[in-house]
């Protein structure tokens, strides 16, 4: 049995308005044409759907049932239209990407530069966010793809590991802990920190672990980027905890020391986040492949490894 969507839309209008004339006016169709379409609809249904009265038209009991199902069908059709339009947008070259500050500060600029060079018609709408917010955006469809910390709330998310990273302690050369090969988070609780703003995932991560030890972190300076954090530390303004992969060479050249943090939770791997409950376009998959590619991540691996030899050398001095 075949029902035309336009017929169903007109039938719902007649049922709700109680008048063929009003329904015809609403949908810009003549009353005679609407009457003919309702006759065809009733013929297909095989039962009377409308009862004509002195005051207009009202649905029969069968008509009430059909109207309820018709509303559901029309709503589903609207959702289908929206899904197709969203798919066309994704395939047309727009990718909505969310990434945390770690990814944006380390490997992502180089990966995107290479990807966009190979796909000149693609537009990447990149937003920086916390890892939990990134996962939420991917789940809701606000983002097509995300890059977040593995310890975020990733329920309902397909994840692809891309970078093994670790939080490290950075301090000026003359700091009392600068000659240590490793420290625990407990060793650092009396320090005055330079951190990112309160919305950053790492700030929340450190605050959570301090609370588990019954302590509050002392924050000396808040800045907006890891680069600023590292410059402040190198200048002697304080200490910080950052991912090893974000420490620029100039920070080490200025004498800042990188010390390993031995706590298990200092391991902070990054993952690609993709929706698990809806299809992913070929274009988004190609970006995910580029981000996950060892060749694309060679610079990230170099940067992540850059900090670790200094931590080892400090153990020897």
Strand order of the largest sheet: 4-3-5-13-6
Derived from helix and strand composition plus strand pairing, the structural class reads: alpha/beta
Which strand-content bin applies to the residues? 15-25%
What is the rounded Rg?
Answer: 30 Å
State the order of secondary-structure elements, H for helix, E for strand.
HHHEEHEHHEHEEEEEHEHEHEEHH
At the fold tier of CATH, the topology name of the largest domain is: D-Maltodextrin-Binding Protein, domain 2
Unreliably modeled segments: 298-317
Instruction: Enumerate how many helices there are, as a single number.
Output: 12
Mind describing the biggest β-sheet? 5 strands, mixed
Family: Belongs to the LysR transcriptional regulatory family.
GO molecular function, one term: DNA-binding transcription factor activity
Pfam family, one: LysR_substrate
InterPro entries: HTH-type_LysR_regulators (IPR050950), LysR_HTH_N (IPR000847), LysR_subst-bd (IPR005119), WH-like_DNA-bd_sf (IPR036388), WH_DNA-bd_sf (IPR036390)
Question: Would you mind describing this structure in some detail?
Answer:
Residues 3-60 form the HTH lysR-type domain. InterPro entries: HTH-type_LysR_regulators, LysR_HTH_N, LysR_subst-bd, WH-like_DNA-bd_sf, WH_DNA-bd_sf. It comes from Afifella marina DSM 2698. One of its GO terms (cellular component) is cytosol. This protein has 317 residues and is an alpha/beta fold. Helices cover 47% and strands 21% of the residues. It folds into two domains: 5-89, Orthogonal Bundle (Arc Repressor Mutant, subunit A); 94-317, D-Maltodextrin-Binding Protein, domain 2. It has twelve helices and 13 strands. The strands form four sheets. A five-stranded mixed beta sheet has the order 4-3-5-13-6, with helices on both faces. The chain has a four-stranded mixed beta sheet with strand order 8-12-7-11, with helices on one face. Helix 1 (5-17) crosses helix 3 (31-45) and helix 2 (20-26) packs across helix 3.
